[in-house]
Amino acid sequence: MEKLRLFFGENGFNPDQQTTIAQSFSRQELTRGSFYLREGQISQQLGFVEHGLFHYFCARDGEEITTYTTGSNGFLVSLSSFLKQRPARESIRALTDGIIWVIQKPSFDQLRREIVSFERFYVGMLEEQINCIDQSRFNLLTLTAEERYQRLMTEEPQLLQDVPLHHLASILGVTPRHLSRIRGQIR
Fold this sequence. Notes:
Elements lengths: L1 H9 L4 H9 L2 E5 L4 E3 L7 E7 L2 E7 L2 E8 L4 E2 L2 H6 L6 E4 L3 E7 H10 L1 H27 L2 H11 L1 H6 L2 H8 L3 H11 L1
């Protein structure tokens, strides 16, 4: 729980607020391959990743299409499902063993009502997600696969070490074979 408290401390919460917020979360361990959320379920919780790597994906025509990955100090949530309480369009699965801290939606909503700075934190988190989604969409539409890979090398080099090749290829919108060719040309 200390990493969770530290995260909220680094994001401007005073010690009392850190304690109140952290006590609203419960610890979960997920093993590699286990699901945090399955497509079609309604997301009832938001998770903070203490340790581990997770990927978001949807299954189409028998293939998994990875749309996003998150690791330590990131959040796990099917955002539209959590916010609107409708079935998730993607699944979230552990790529490694992980430790997460989860908060149920009613507790999350209560923190938003009771701690003004938590509401501001939440709005900032949403704005950051919107910017990430917008940037990703823009990159897919305007950059070549090679340019997207080079951007990944510059902006998120740890993913190249941590995420399996077939998931990276899916995130970049190419086949694993095409990604191997790109990597060979850029090295």
